[in-house]
Design brief:
Strand content of chain B: 5-15%
Strand content of chain A: 15-25%
Shape of chain B: elongated
Number of helices of chain A: 18
Helix content of chain B: 55-70%
Number of strands of chain A: 18
Oligomer: heterodimer
Number of strands of chain B: 4
Radius of gyration of chain A: 34 Å
Largest sheet of chain A: 5 strands, antiparallel
Helix content of chain A: 55-70%
Largest interface: A-B, 78 and 80 residues
Strand order of the largest sheet of chain B: 2-3-1-4
């Protein structure tokens, strides 16, 4: 067989393979929503297979959630670290299954990161909430009321001084002294405060009031509303309700280094997992917890949901045998005290322990908990505890409407651009231009087929890559045609001009393709995120372009054997 | 034969003195932009600083100034832009970079809560949100720098192998000139420096180099032909003129697509297409007025071809 016949044969084989690879994508993309739903109901297995074989659309094109988690392994020993990320992935997969996302993707990145993709998942808030809760479930005791009150007073005076300083008011000698002395741990804060109070009453009270700044001597505690009812024994516990709008401010205060120094190492402030309704108004709950972890969620099993007697939700659980002793001891020693259920350092609820718990227990959900909250809690508990705490370091949520909008825009702008280029080439190079157009269409078809075959994901930058591929492909044919024109001008026959044009343009085409391939490879191996999607399409597009723009167009020219004239 | 460019015989090399002026301005601007960007003084995107980008729309119209005023506390530095090409009205992008307030926990929900509080009767529907931690931003910045360096080194090496030393140096220098040109203009119009923008810069660098390779390829070929006449400048001029038709047709084809992308591709691809459009214009100019004159000047000072 001649070389030419081989080329035709290879091209035909590639077309068939390409059609096979592209067919699922074509089928899926041309189905209406109703048809998809019908197929999903009637033949779910085939539908899943179809989805897997079709070109996936990136989150930027169809909407969805992309989260990168960092597993904080530094707190673990070296041995525990090794499998921690894998186990965390396993737990996360199980939890995500509870969401019912069609094609969730959980993969490892680097040493300690996990990427979670939930494509097409529209209920972003719920998924995010669940992912956000992906931390260790812990049980912690609350700090005593007396210690908490004392700490609040110390913090109040420091915050007061800080607010004054921020407002540009030089603290009077009294307040400065108060602020200074509070740093020394052993000073009687209350007495200092009293002293400051009297000093202000006589001297600079009006001054402060005029400015409207921090005349409030107790900036923190005046924003806290104690709500946690006292237990049967009459002991109050430190649980406060905070007005929604105050949370940010209080967080900032608590984060101040001066304040951090005041907080003893064995206690921590923690917010509630959600806004709760207290005394007819809703706000965040703030707790002062003992840092020590009393019990962890991994010993809980047989989780079930129940409607509580008071109307709220309750989560029943059984303690695994290896944890029974520990839990019984914990609850037995702390009857009538609250036990905080802590998820990702946020307090889910702090029910009071009624009696020593041996085998079975109940978590009373917060008053504002909805059925979704309860289900999420159940999923989290069922999937077990993560081996190490995780932190969301990157999050990308694209609403379905924006996805639909960008896919429409990306698709149409691509289509319009392609059409204009096809026409442009056909106008300037006539029949030869149409041959180049055919090569270009082959290029795009093969590119889509390869992407489907590789299971690659098409993203917005990927679309940009396709557009550049179009440019490369067109450039190759323009180089060839300009050469052919030159050859024709020298008086060569049509046949000889075509052959010479192809041969002489090859070097420039090859060089330009190789340099672009180098760029694509560098982008792929060293880039990240959207850059990679772009690099993948660019790499394949350019590789294919070398074949379609150079070989396929030549085959078409060669098939038409006898040239008298060339339309170029 | 329909030709967009008639057979030309323009004395491009003769015009090089004017081009030096323009190129000099672009180079200075580009270098300033490069230094400023490296120091993080350009319009850095949250990709590289860490932060939050919220895109969403209000139910009822909101004055942009009111929206800016509503973002108080830690978020008072947030940038607010109106989103005009989105199909929904009253749409805004709120961008909050971490560099503005280091140490504050990045939380998109905090911004959302703030908005819900300030506009209680006018809900803000989030259509997309992007949160990047500062460590990730740093990783991305490092990755991007590596990608650029390795890509440049790879291309340089390739040109070195394919052409001789002079061609390699001239092509690389001219390509750098083009990239700096784009960087400079984008800095002036304050284009956001994000991952897509870096992608665009690298791609335009690839395109720019291709353009130079095509011209040099022809110069090398013509030098063989004109060897006897020992007319270097003539050979270079001839080469530029011969490939002019290709240069313009290719440039136009890519420009058409990019202009369509810029206008209709949506907000995501706008920065990308703008950088690419500038890149194609500047690299076409660079191939003709920078790369080729470098060869001519070099030959004039140290003749090697026609000894």
């Amino acid at each position: 067989m001649s070389a030419q016949k081989w080329r035709i044969l290879i091209t035909l084989v590639l077309v068939v393979v390409g059609l096979l690879a592209f067919w699922p994508t074509f089928k899926l993309w041309t189905m209406s929503d109703a048809e998809r739903e019908k197929m999903n109901l009637e033949e779910p297995g085939e539908y899943l297979e179809l989805q897997q074989k079709a070109i996936r659309l990136g989150l930027d094109l169809q909407g969805g959630i992309h989260v990168v988690l960092k597993v904080k392994t530094e707190e673990l020993g070296q041995e525990a670290t090794a499998g921690a990320v894998e186990r965390a992935m396993q737990v996360i997969r199980t939890r995500i299954d509870g969401l019912g996302v069609a094609e969730p993707n959980v993969q490892k990145q680097g040493n300690d990161q996990i990427i979670i993709d939930l494509p097409g998942y529209t209920d972003a808030d719920r998924a995010e909430e669940l992912i956000g809760q992906m931390a260790v479930l812990e049980f912690k005791l609350l700090e005593s009321h007396d210690n908490a009150t004392l700490l609040l007073q110390k913090i109040d005076s420091v915050v007061h001084a800080y607010e004054l300083a921020k407002a540009g008011i030089t603290p009077t000698s009294d307040t400065a002294a108060a602020a200074d002395t509070t740093k020394a741990e052993d000073v009687d804060v209350l007495a200092e405060l009293m002293g400051k109070d009297t000093a202000r009453d006589t001297s600079d009270f009006d001054f402060d009031e005029d400015l409207g700044v921090s005349e409030d001597l107790n900036p923190l505690s005046s924003r806290l509303d104690q709500w946690l009812s006292t237990s049967q024994t009459g002991t109050p516990w430190p649980g406060w309700s905070v007005n929604r709008r105050d949370r940010q401010k209080i967080e900032a205060w608590l984060a101040l280094p001066e304040v951090q120094r005041l907080i003893p190492v064995d206690v921590q402030f923690a917010w509630s997992t959600r806004v709760e309704m207290r005394n007819q108004r809703d706000g965040w709950d703030l707790y002062l917890l003992k840092r020590k972890v009393q019990f962890v969620g991994k010993y809980l099993e047989n989780i079930s949901l129940r409607r509580g007697q008071m109307g709220g939700h309750e989560v029943d659980f059984r303690i695994a045998s290896e944890g029974i002793g520990r839990f019984a001891q914990l609850t037995g020693a702390n009857v009538n005290k609250p036990l905080a259920v802590v998820l990702d350092n946020a307090v889910e609820s702090a029910p009071i322990i009624n009696s020593k718990i041996r085998g079975n227990g109940t978590i009373t959900m917060g008053g504002s908990a909805t059925i979704e909250d309860a289900v999420n809690m159940k999923i989290v508990l069922e999937a077990g505890a993560l081996p190490a705490p995780v932190e969301i370091i990157e999050k990308n949520v694209v609403g379905a409407s924006l996805g639909a909008d960008s896919i429409r825009k990306g698709f149409y702008s691509c289509l319009i651009g392609l059409l204009v280029v096809l026409v442009y080439i056909a106008v300037f190079y006539r029949i030869s231009g149409i041959i180049a157009d055919i090569g270009l269409l082959f290029n795009i078809f093969f590119l889509l087929a390869v992407m489907a075959g590789l299971g690659a994901t098409l993203t917005m930058p990927g679309i940009a890559g396709i557009i550049l591929t179009i440019g490369m492909s067109v450039d190759s044919n323009i180089l060839i045609f300009e050469r052919i024109r030159e050859e024709l001008r020298t008086g060569k026959t049509v046949r000889a001009s075509i052959d010479a044009g192809y041969v002489r343009a090859f070097i420039a085409i090859f060089d330009s393709h190789v340099t672009t391939l180098i760029t694509a490879l560098a982008l792929f191996f060293f880039g990240s995120g959207p850059i990679r999607g772009f690099a993948v399409t660019l790499f394949w597009g350019v590789s294919i372009s070398l074949y379609t723009a150079y070989v396929i167009t030549k085959v078409i020219f060669d098939v038409r054997k006898a040239y008298q004239k060339l339309s170029i | 034969m329909l030709k967009i460019v008639p057979d030309t015989n323009i004395n491009f090399i003769g015009m090089r003195k004017y081009a030096y002026l323009l190129s000099g301005v672009m180079l200075v601007l580009g270098l300033i932009a490069f230094v400023m960007t490296a120091m993080g003084n350009a319009n850095m995107g949250i990709d590289f600083t860490g932060g939050v980008m919220l895109k969403g729309h209000f139910q009822d119209p909101v004055e942009i100034d009111n929206l800016r005023a509503a973002l108080t506390g830690a978020f008072s530095d947030a940038a607010v832009t109106e989103l005009t090409d989105f199909s929904k009205p009253n749409a805004y992008i709120i961008k909050w970079k971490l560099e503005a307030e280091p140490g504050v926990k990045q939380e998109s929900s905090a911004i959302k809560n703030l908005l819900a509080e300030k506009f209680p009767t006018n809900p803000f529907t989030v259509i997309s949100e992007h949160t990047i931690g500062p460590a990730v931003g740093e990783d991305l910045r490092r990755d991007a720098i590596w990608a650029v360096l390795i890509s440049v080194a790879g291309i340089l090496g390739y040109i070195w192998v394919r052409f001789d030393f002079r061609f390699g140096v001239a092509a690389t220098a001219a390509t750098m000139h083009d990239v700096l040109g784009v960087l400079g203009i984008c800095y002036l119009i304050s284009t956001e420096f994000n991952l897509l923008y870096i992608t665009a810069l690298l791609t335009m660098a690839g395109y720019s180099l291709t353009d130079k390779v095509v011209v040099f390829d022809r110069i090398r070929e013509n030098l063989q032909k004109y060897r006897s006449r020992s007319e270097f400048v003539h050979a270079v001029n001839r080469s530029i003129n011969e490939v002019l038709s290709r240069t313009i047709n290719t440039g136009m084809s890519v420009l058409i697509v990019l202009i369509i992308l810029f206008n209709f591709g949506g907000e995501v691809l706008q920065g990308f297409s703008l950088a690419m459009i500038l890149g194609i214009l500047i690299s076409t100019y660079g191939s003709i007025f920078v790369a080729s004159p470098i060869m001519v000047e070099w030959e004039a000072r140290r003749p090697s071809r026609f000894k």
